[in-house]
């Protein structure tokens, strides 16, 4: 039964209204229509989230203080820190790539953990929200998909495998700190309920409040998921601009995937890096790098790179085009499956950054003058652009459009408030 004091949410993936059930630790509320997770009922509480955020901050600082990897060849050694890759790309004339790696590897993870700490610490102590807490937590949520420490770790493994036959490699103290940071950060995110944080900042709209408004005019904030009547102005809780649906979702999506498709061609045809070994230069494309790994019988790594760098971008472009096409046709078929496809596309796209992180590490480590040098090439810029543009395309797509043209009977059923599945 729906109680009048239960908070109401509109599903972020299909728009169906739900009255959230009472808190049930260890469970989660799912959308009855598309299966999206509406709320996790965490057991750790805000105090645990604060402790893990402090631990993440310490580990992240430690991971940046010491070398992460040391490369030694012919008696000469070169060390690399987390920031060495972005510096090497900048010094090599690829400033845009250097800034991108700095943002997703350093700035976004640091801002995410510090922002979480700033917002959650006062709430865990039972005090009112800190000044600007709503804007800060909104920014933290937006940065989450752009913080790629775990993707960098995968790129480091690929770089290690590529160099292991060429020279001696020694993991540095920062590698352990980085692994620990990733694990603690994942633990921290799993222990923190964004709904609880937003509820502490300003209460979620209740069923009785929503019932007084026209159901057709109810709008959910894209950032904090507050439910308001109307779609004009700013969200009263977090200040984000309100939209009933993401504006220009279809034309923007088509424009972005068209640009990514065009860039995908030079990204695969042009070299992404050049390896100079004792004066002999050898440019590498993405595919030739995979072939080299296969020739060295490094099958698992070759499959990983092929999947992340070639298969994922292609499937993501095809998948997004399919979603845009079916929405444009107003198709009511397989809506739940198409929503699952959207979630998959949104989740895997960032992992294609593996090659960019690998190149940044190799460019930082292998700078031994006439003995051996590795530097980035223009193909890496095109490939990075494909990854970022496809991520922006999936972010601009509004999955609720999939459900905007259902059969009449389903429309009438979904217009009433339904308790979320537990």
From TrEMBL:
Any one GO CC term of the record: plasma membrane
Membrane topology: Multi-pass membrane protein
Domain of life per record: Bacteria
Annotated keywords: Cell inner membrane, Cell membrane, Membrane, Transmembrane, Transmembrane helix
InterPro entries noted in UniProt: PqiA-like (IPR007498), PqiA-like_proteobact (IPR005219), PqiA-PqiB_transport (IPR051800)
Transmembrane segments: 49-69, 96-125, 146-163, 175-192, 254-278, 298-327, 348-368, 374-393
Subcellular location: Cell inner membrane
Chief location of this protein within or outside the cell: membrane
Coiled-coil annotated spans: none
Listed NCBIfam families: pqiA_fam (TIGR00155)
Similarity-based family: Belongs to the PqiA family.
Protein name, per record: Paraquat-inducible protein A
The species this protein was found in: Azospirillum brasilense
């Amino acid at each position: 039964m729906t109680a009048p004091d239960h908070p109401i949410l509109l599903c972020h993936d299909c728009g169906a209204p739900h009255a959230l059930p009472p808190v049930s630790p260890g469970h989660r509320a799912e959308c009855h229509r598309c299966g999206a997770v509406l709320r996790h009922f965490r057991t750790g509480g805000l105090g645990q989230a604060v402790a893990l955020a402090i631990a993440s901050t310490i580990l992240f600082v430690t991971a940046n203080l010491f070398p992460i990897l040391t490369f030694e060849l012919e008696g000469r050694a070169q060390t690399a820190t987390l920031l060495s890759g972005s510096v090497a790309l900048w010094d090599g004339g690829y400033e845009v790539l250097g800034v991108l790696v700095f943002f997703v590897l350093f700035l976004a993870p640091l801002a995410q953990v510090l922002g979480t700490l700033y917002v959650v610490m006062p709430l865990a102590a039972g005090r009112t929200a800190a000044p600007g807490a709503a804007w800060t937590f909104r920014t933290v949520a937006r940065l989450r998909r752009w913080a790629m420490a775990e993707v960098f770790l995968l790129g480091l493994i690929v770089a290690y495998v590529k160099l292991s036959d060429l020279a001696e490699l020694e993991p540095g103290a920062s590698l352990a700190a980085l692994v620990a940071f990733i694990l603690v950060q994942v633990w921290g995110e799993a222990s923190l309920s964004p709904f609880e944080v937003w509820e502490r900042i300003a209460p979620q709209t209740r069923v009785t409040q929503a019932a007084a408004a026209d159901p057709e005019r109810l709008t959910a904030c894209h950032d904090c998921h507050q439910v308001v009547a109307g779609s004009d102005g700013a969200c009263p809780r977090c200040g984000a601009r309100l939209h009933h649906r993401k504006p220009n979702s279809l034309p923007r999506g088509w424009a972005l995937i068209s640009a990514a498709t065009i860039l995908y061609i030079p990204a695969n045809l042009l070299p992404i890096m050049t390896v100079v070994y004792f004066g002999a230069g050898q440019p590498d494309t993405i595919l030739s790098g995979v072939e080299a790994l296969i020739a060295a019988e490094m099958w698992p790594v070759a499959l990983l790179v092929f999947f992340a760098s070639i298969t994922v971008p292609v499937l993501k472009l095809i998948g997004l085009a399919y979603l845009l096409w079916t929405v444009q046709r107003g198709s009511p078929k397989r809506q739940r499956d198409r929503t699952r496809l959207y979630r998959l596309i949104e989740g895997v796209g960032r992992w294609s950054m593996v090659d960019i992180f690998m190149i940044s590490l190799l460019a930082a480590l292998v700078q031994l003058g006439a003995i051996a040098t590795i530097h980035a090439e223009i193909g890496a810029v095109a490939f990075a652009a494909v990854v970022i543009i496809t991520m922006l395309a999936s972010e601009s797509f509004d999955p609720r459009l999939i459900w905007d043209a259902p059969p009449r009977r389903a429309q009438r059923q979904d217009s009433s408030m339904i308790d979320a599945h537990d």
